[in-house]
Amino acid sequence: MDKAQLLRDKSQCLLSVNREEQKKQEKQEKQEKLVHTKVLIVGVGGLGSPVALYLAAAGVGELVLVDFDRVELSNLQRQIVHDTTQLGQYKTLSAQATLQARYPDVQIIVINQAIKEEWFKKNLGSVDVVVDCSDNFATRFAINAACVKSGTPLVSGAALRWGGQVTVFLPSQPYSPCYRCLYGDQEEQSEVCSETGVVTPLVGIIGCTQSMEVLKILLNIGKTLCGKVLLFDAYTGALRTLKLHKDPACPICSKNSDIRKIGNPI
Ligand SMILES: [Zn+2]
């Protein structure tokens, strides 16, 4: 091997070491960034369980858990953050105990009540991302309206029977649709997991996908599902992504929504 070749090899080796060090540093920076983030999880059931577990494991600094329900035996086949020793406890406290035992550095704040608009007004400003893991339309619409108002990113997920979906709303971006753009003004549908049922691993798949979207938003990496709805059919294994456009007539996120409220309805 000639001298020039040796020098080329040596410089390649140094470049490779530099790249490795750079990657290590970037990883460290991302980890440190996560420590200073705060995520609000509404609902600590089937979806909220994997979301809370994975975000705590990933190193999110602060989790706010909201749920007014208590742990029941029938919950345990799909709500994996709770166990038989926690029956009868508030789901928030039960989840807090599980998470703190595994990840003591994560700060967990619990809210054992259905949150109202007033609470959102006071608290959403300090939250980096809201994760909707609730199981009814009334709550989902309320969370959506609050997030649009405060400009807080929202990661929405749902799972029922064999079907699940995930989408992301980024209200600070003018192109972003909102949950109301997706579902219009339809009345609440009463179907919920506890009554209709859901195949157990599906809530894990949907919850994990939600937590992935949260991390992408927090770290500003990759492409989020904003403007898209990811649909998963567990029965056939089919995965589809549909486009979701902002509804210019949406009463929640449209620029003209305030004008329309005052003027004649369109
Ligand atoms: Zn909208």
What does this entry look like structurally?
By secondary structure, the protein is α/β, with parallel strands linked by helices. It has one domain: NAD(P)-binding Rossmann-like Domain (Rossmann fold, 3-Layer(aba) Sandwich), CATH 3.40.50. Helices cover 42% and strands 17% of the residues. The protein has nine helices and eight strands. The chain has an eight-stranded mixed sheet, sandwiched between helices. A hairpin with a 2-residue loop joins strand 5 and strand 6. Helix 2 packs across helix 8. The longest helix has 33 residues. The radius of gyration is 21 Å and the shape is globular. It starts with a helix and ends with a helix. 37% of the residues are buried. It binds zinc ion. The site of zinc ion has 8 residues, from helix 6. Zinc ion binds next to helix 6.
Summarize the structure.
The chain is of the alpha/beta class. It has helices at residues 3-35, 48-58, 91-102, 117-123, 137-150, 179-183, 193-196, 200-219, 257-262; strands at 38-42, 62-66, 107-111, 129-132, 154-160, 163-169, 228-233, 238-243.
Features:
alpha/beta; eight-stranded mixed beta sheet; binds zinc ion; 266 residues; 42% helix
Topology:
Elements: H1 3-35, E1 38-42, H2 48-58, E2 62-66, H3 91-102, E3 107-111, H4 117-123, E4 129-132, H5 137-150, E5 154-160, E6 163-169, H6 179-183, H7 193-196, H8 200-219, E7 228-233, E8 238-243, H9 257-262
Parallel strand pairs: 1-2, 1-4, 2-3, 4-5
Antiparallel strand pairs: 5-6, 6-7, 7-8
Helix pairs in contact: 2-8
Zinc ion binds next to α6.
